[in-house]
Design brief:
alpha+beta, Nucleoside Triphosphate Pyrophosphohydrolase, 3 domains, 3-stranded antiparallel β-sheet, 7 helices, 11 strands, 30% helix
Amino acid sequence: PQGHRCIALGCNSTRYGYDDAKLRYFRLPPDENRRNQWLTNCGREDLKSHPVKSLVTKVLCQLHFHDSQFMNAHNYQRLVWNALPTLFGSDTRKPEEFKPLVDAKAATQAQDHAYTAAGGGGADQRRYMLLCADLKRQLADKERQLELLQKYRDTMFDTVLRQARALPPDKQRSLVGSLLASLKPRPDAEVLQLLRQNALVGPELPPEATEPRVRVEVLLLSREHPGCALLGMGTHCALGRGLYQPPADFIHFGESWEAAAARATQQETGLPIQEPQVCSVVETLRPQDQFHCISIFMAAHVACPDPQPSPPEQATCANWQWFLWEALPSEDLLFWTLRDLRRNNIINLDTFL
């Protein structure tokens, strides 16, 4: 349009000695979100606060649009519906890159519009846009159906696993074989990991599920986070997945409590500790989960200036966070042993600092 100037910061279409009338200009989109994105990209965020009516005549020239933003890469008259200007500063295109696409008569008749321009092929383009919209709707429907099927499959799988835990070992082995066959499209490593996480195979469960075990759990303390303990969410463990818990592990044969605390903390958080000391002992029994454990809770100081965890790849927990001891997550989000500790014991972490 004659008299319009591109609003892009530092843009001057005539500085290359090119006739502005042969460049295409595109009005700002009527949609507020996309209009603001255009203004942000072109460095004119100052215009966002202007009244919408005052932005009707604001335009950007075609020098700021990549070929992919045009409906036809060889015809720069029409933008795709979701086009964004991305070429500014040294990336701004040179007018010489564009060939004159309309003669003087067509140029005077062309309408300045953000998405359309004068010319033939309008009906074909409308059919194309309608076809694209229809295909997008079909794709969205298929994705929703797939998501529902996956949720149904996961629910059925979890139901079978819960029932399987009550079966004798020989029946469990038979069920595992059936599950492996049903999950054949998945990679073998992924299947085994899935079964391990659900306590059907793998070394995570104790050799004898009915035998109580002793477990060390470490309440990490840091002067950078007074009154707080470090908790992570179980992600790759057979028991306690999705629950917050401190660094913990079962005591190895011949291992001291202090050594077990240092080892568990290192393998879960990558942090060294010092001065571990017993602060509580908790017994947790959950027959429905075949879990009977004596937990030795130990308070220990982080032995490094930066108390930020860096879990190794083999860690069973993730998303480590410092929680105020008086403001821990709700009980339904705590691992069973930590839940029992909070219910039955009163611990003032400040006494261990």
